[in-house]
Design goal:
The chain crosses the membrane at residues 39-56. It comes from Colwellia maritima. This is HIG1 domain-containing protein. By secondary structure, the protein is mostly helical. It has two helices and no strands. The protein has helices at residues 2-24, 30-56.
Length: 57
């Protein structure tokens, strides 16, 4: 029962984030998207490398 309550709360919060994001969010420019894409690739690579090292140790 507790799990269902937690899942309902998570679903409610995600729905609220989507609604507020659509209402108050503004689109990113192409320059911002390119910068975010470059940074996210580096972060994903670092996280993958850290996970591999953690599994090996």
């Amino acid at each position: 029962m507790t799990l269902l309550i937690i899942l309902a709360c998570v679903f409610g919060v995600v729905a609220l984030m989507v609604i507020l994001g659509e209402r108050f969010g503004k689109p990113m420019s192409e320059e911002q998207q390119a910068k975010f894409s470059k940074v996210s690739r580096i972060l994903v690579f670092v996280l993958l490398l850290a996970a591999i090292v953690k599994e090996l140790i």
